[in-house]
Amino acid sequence: MSKYIFIPNGGEAVEAEYKEQMLEEYKGNPFIEALPPIYSKDEVVDKLVVYPNYNSKERMLDSHLRVHMVQRLFQCFQPLQVHLDLESRISRVIRQGYLARNPFRPEYAAGLQDGYRMIQNLNLDLCSNKRFRTTAAGFTIIGVSGMGKTTAVNRILATMPQIIVHSEYRGVKFSMCQLVWLKVDCPYDGSIKGLCMEFFSKVDSLLGTDYYKKHVTGRHTVDSMLSIMSQVARHTGLGMLVIDEIQHLKQAKSGGSEKMLNFFVTLVNTIGVPVVIIGTTKAMSVLQSEFRQARRGSGQGDMVWERLKKDSNWDLLMGALWDYQWTKKEVSFTPEISDVMYEESQGIIDIAVKLYAMAQIRAIYSGIEEVNPDLIRQVARENLKLVQPMLEALKSGDMRRISQFEDISTVDFEEFISLERPKYSSEDKIQELLIKKKQKENTDTLSLKERAILKLLDLDIEPQKAQKVVEEIINQEESISVSEVVIKAVQILKETASKKTSVKKNKTEFRDEDDLRVIVEEGKIKQMSAYEALRAKGIIKTVENDFFQAG
């Protein structure tokens, strides 16, 4: 069990726990031994997968609650083959980058001293470490926007600690904060200064340092900030630097993109820090020529993150999403639905998830309460107009047409919800405005209500009864916990049921036994028909009796 440490003015770290290494080259290096173990494919899936809570009884709740629940779809993360490949690459590049940076080797200690002098004096060349031979190997991830590149990288990075605190290694004092990974976004204008500013700001927020104050607010040039940046990476034992949104380099001033890419190459070759670069298809033109040549021998290879093909990966993703249905009528995932979803999303994960969510919301608000192929086509036709040019380009397979589109995540889900809401009367609108005015003070009311209702559903209480009693309790109590709501709700429901039973008993005690309804009811208990019961009581007389009495 890892011990967590809070760094003053910084982030959360874990205390180093050194693990026995299966591979000989990884032994004797505290940077590597302190990392999590190399996971198997099954372990990677277990660590990456996210299945939000779901209860089929939720489908019986009111529409305004179910619309909120539909947004749980965006929390779902289904690992695919591409994610397993990415996790393996990241695991390898971090470890390979540390091979030549063993802190117990003399050359590493000498590098730290050089770095310290550089930060103090700013008079050393970044490339002066001629004895250093890198083992680092970065790579790029390029693909259509909306495929979840950033989300996947974030999920994988979350499986390993970001900061590891060392104090002693094999009986030798070793005091150091190891920064395993750092992720920054390329500035929107593609400026090197903006990148340096974000780098120093992120490091300060994690390690409690003041690099930003020292080296950004002063009169340092961009070149000096790059030198300091590289030495900070060395000094902190940075395992991997991730640069996202690299397509912003297209906005850089003349020569700026080349200079920044050359700096990344220098980090890999001179300092030994692996650099992983993420970007959309628009970044392809930036990552050519000199940068490709400089990284030819990296060994990891670049990832072209293509849209999903209509194969087992697609069915795995859609099958996982389809389990989450909040329409009253549950629909099975069929080949026809799979075809329609793929045709309308072209295998873009972001569009597929939003399309499915929008189809559910349309079904709920309209009262159809069913997601079918026709509804999916209708929602796509009406709400994916902005991304249709991109989807048509994807259908064509022409990379020149595809590369013209930088971002396809323009499906405004919140706007869709607002447009789908039923038209209220003017009085309802005024009431809605009053509710919205109080939302800031009651931001947790819905989540409290939802959790309490779900608890009651688990106790096999009818959805309508659960919702009604929970709302009554929350409206009466200003501050109350979920467990208190559930306890009170159960008590109220029991008392209500007890009163109904008591009333029923009282009714039976004072009923008129000559009442025809009572006679029929008692006859049913004796398995007699209504005719037989009334005849037995003498209410109905037979024809024979009437005849003989008349004679």
TrEMBL record:
Entry-linked InterPro entries: AAA_22, P-loop_NTPase
One Gene Ontology term of the molecular function aspect: ATP hydrolysis activity
Residue ranges constituting the ORC1/DEAH AAA+ ATPase domain according to the UniProt record: 138-284
One Pfam family linked to the record: AAA_22
Top-level division of the source organism's lineage: Bacteria
Name assigned to this protein: AAA domain-containing protein
Organism: Geosporobacter subterraneus DSM 17957
Biological classification of the source: Bacteria, Bacillati, Bacillota, Clostridia, Peptostreptococcales
